[in-house]
Amino acid sequence: MQTSGRIKKSALDIFSMAVTFGICLVAAIDLVRYAVLGSGAAFLTMLVVEAAFVCVALAAWRGRCHALLALVAAAGVVLYFYMNNAETTQFNLTLLIQAALAAVGAVGGTVWCIAGRLSPRRAAALLLIPVLALAVICGGVWGGCTAADDKKTLAEPCLWSVPDKFDAVDCPEQGRVEELNYTTKAYATDGRSVEKRALVYLPYGYSEAEEYDILYLLHGTGDDEEYWLRTYSYNKTMLDNLIYYGEVQPLIVVTPTWYVEDDCEGNLDPLTYSFKQELRSDLMPAAESAYSTYAKTCDPEGFAASRSHRAFAGLSRGAVTTLHSVFNGCLDLFSRFGTFSGSRTPVEYFAEHIQSEECKDLSIDYWYVSSGTFDFTLAGQLQDYKAVLAAEPRLQEGVNTSLDVFPMRYHSMGSWHLALYNFLLKAF
């Protein structure tokens, strides 16, 4: 009987060791892949995640407490859904592999122990100490770096949230939001006439006698023109405060939608390319004839002459639209661009458009790129960004372009709110 028990224990140890080795191997592969991406914030985040996974796996194996692996399985599944997208990327598929290994280990090891009446060892508790230490350290660093610091303005690697004085309270001098209705066409499909609406932010004290910079700001998939200024109204509060405290000059912000009724429901990509026609022909003339910008005339010549006072930014598929339709479709009319959590634009597309004969001598005043360490768009953004910088001499890192990766942020307004804050301070 003792021999049979030893065999069962040995077989269980081999099984547990195999599960642990699999989790560790995937962790090592993941860290190499993230090191190659070249983002310190993303690499350190994954280092913490994978170190926690490995410590829990070792605790489950050496402590014969396989139920602990359920923690890795649950965390792996949650992170997989945050950090992957069925339509665009499966870069972090490795997390699902680790979750599957952990689930097999948790169920198989627990059943094995119960059947063999094998009790846990103390090593389980000891090996969990590094996991708890990681959690305490990371929580402390996160809390410290996101704490309000009213002496700082521009978000830095050690400041991961908008300072409270711009964000937490209503501004004593508040701008207003108006609706702008205009007629356009279904450029991606049948060219029919379509009535659309955009929201327009006007700064406090707006006057037709003054000239204002203008920012066009796009939402992402499934949202609409109200997303930036009404659905998440604290973006307007931040705009009010940045202007009130003199961090940015008063500006106009237009939030349109790239949707055109129910067109392209099965494949939205054509809308990301056709939006440039709506922008050039319909939206800009409507907005800049109604409000006072630096454009002396609302025609291509007037827009081109005032391009240095005009910016365009977007989040998620709105960022993709910014690249497809504006950076690579309206460089003659815009000089500042922000792409938050979205790319999907190969370097060849840039070369075809911004390096064309018509655009090769135009200045690029600023290109700001951002993402979160848990954002499923991050890997593609990093790869596209580096490729474009290598191919385009007008773009110089730290001079007129930058990429921020926000620790612990994912594909959500928490990341995009901070991105808008940084973009406004860097681009204007």
Automatic annotation (TrEMBL):
TM annotation in the entry: 12-35, 41-60, 67-83, 95-116, 123-143
InterPro entries: AB_hydrolase_fold, Esterase-like, Mycobacterial_A85_antigen
GO molecular function, one term: acyltransferase activity, transferring groups other than amino-acyl groups
Highest taxon of the lineage: Bacteria
Pfam families: Esterase (PF00756)
Keywords (A to Z) from UniProt: Membrane, Transmembrane, Transmembrane helix
Protein name: Esterase family protein
